[in-house]
Specification:
This protein has ten helices and eight strands. It is α+β, with helices and mostly antiparallel strands. The strands form two sheets. It has a five-stranded mixed sheet with strand order 1-4-5-3-2.
Length: 260
Amino acid sequence: MLMSIPVLQVSKNLRQSFVTSSKGDQLKWKIGNLWGKADKFGYEGLAEWVSYELITRSNIDKRLVVPYKRCLLIEDNDITYEGCYSEDFLLPGESIITLHRVLESYGVNFEQLLQRQSAKSAILSIVDFLKSTLKLDTLNYISVMLSLDAFLLNEDRHLNNIAFIHGPAGYKLCPYFDHGLSLLSDTTDYPMTMPTSIALRKVKAKPFSTDFSKQARALESPLSFNRSSVTSFIDENEAELGRVAQILRTQINKYHFLFQ
């Protein structure tokens, strides 16, 4: 299987150093217009690819979709990593501004915000804050993100994984990115020997609640998946997906209201 996927040649001097996960740094390289990421915790590359394929089978605006593909990354013709790659979605003159950075620059303490309010109220407070500061309407954007995270079991939606794009014309919505720690991909925390039912009870959400369902249902989300297309994808790739196929079928049943 691995022989059929693309191979990217990388080197240590192309490594990018910044926090990409709440669980620690992940090896990441910039190769021309591509970003390559190595698996660190388990099968993150598979999770990114599957998440992308499922997103394309939803009603999410195509401008907010980042294509991820699985690959091998060979560093300095020496060390081989499994992982994935994606294209840089930033245009010349644009930069990423994370929610963490925005809140910090305005002196907003997110943890105190959560302590004072319910999950729904905290989400709406952030939506109002972003509308007044960045002049962005993020209500549907964030509600879709939280529903998507619940379905995919994305445990890594920390404040640096919610971001916006700043460019010459101001701010705009950033594509949904970084789903590597989805679908129980961290095989240290969720070993392949662990019954899926137990792993599903252990995994926790971020950032407004540790409960995925509570986040997903906090706002009325317009997110919708094409059921037949998603189930066909799972059936056609069953062997490659492994336990991810079982996880997805469980999630489809749980979040049936997201499917048509």
